[in-house]
Design brief:
The chain is mostly helical. The protein has one domain. It is built from five helices and no strands.
């Protein structure tokens, strides 16, 4: 199937959907790997702290979760509300790119079915224009035209469903990180000499 035939089948809305799908795949793959990796490194760091709490006073590695953790430990003894507020600020500061990617995924999940619907409407208008120019209506032509018009709706839904699933996956991962950071910051905050309560 050459490009002109493909364009004739899916139209401009279909081409836009292909580009949107490529952007969604890129964002999903990049940030799934990123979130899983930083979570793995963070848990390894915390396991190392269990063996050697003195590492807490050393320089923090580049991992954003570890940087947030060391910042949260300093606020651990100020109360749960202060710790939550500090974590919210730190997540906003260190997870800007992830939040931007999540916003784009949410936007893709909203735009895709609308683009698909637009492609379907434009395709059906084109079919009826062709049929209106003929004196005898060919049912096979009508069926083929409507089938081609519906392809963009299918494409839109095919993009929307996985994009929404990944959006909520990212949201759950970030919420899970926040819970872990709260727990670990409370535990290790008692060991941090900077808090004035360490042993």
């Amino acid at each position: 199937m050459n490009l002109m035939k493909l364009y004739a089948s899916i139209g401009a809305a279909g081409i836009a959907l292909v580009l949107v799908a490529a952007a969604a795949v890129y964002l999903c793959v990049k940030y799934v790997i990123y979130l899983l990796w930083i979570g793995h490194v963070f848990r390894g760091y915390v396991a190392g702290l269990e063996r050697d709490p003195a590492r807490l006073t050393g320089p923090a590695p580049a991992n954003p979760l570890i940087r947030m953790f060391t910042g949260a430990v300093r606020h651990a003894n100020r109360g749960a509300n202060d710790l939550r507020a500090e974590l919210a600020f730190l997540f906003h500061k260190h997870f800007r790119k992830v939040n931007r990617a999540m916003t784009l995924l949410r936007l893709i999940s909203v735009i895709s079915p609308l683009l698909g619907l637009m492609g379907t409407v434009l395709g059906i208008v084109k079919v009826f224009r062709v049929i209106g120019a003929q004196t005898a209506v060919n049912p096979a032509l009508l069926a083929t035209g409507i089938w081609e018009a519906l392809i963009t709706t299918i494409m839109g839904l095919t993009i929307t469903i996985p994009a929404l699933c990944f959006y909520y996956f990212f949201k759950m991962q970030i919420n899970g990180f926040q819970v872990e950071l709260m727990e670990y910051a409370g535990h290790f905050g008692q060991l941090d000499p900077k808090n004035g309560s360490g042993s």
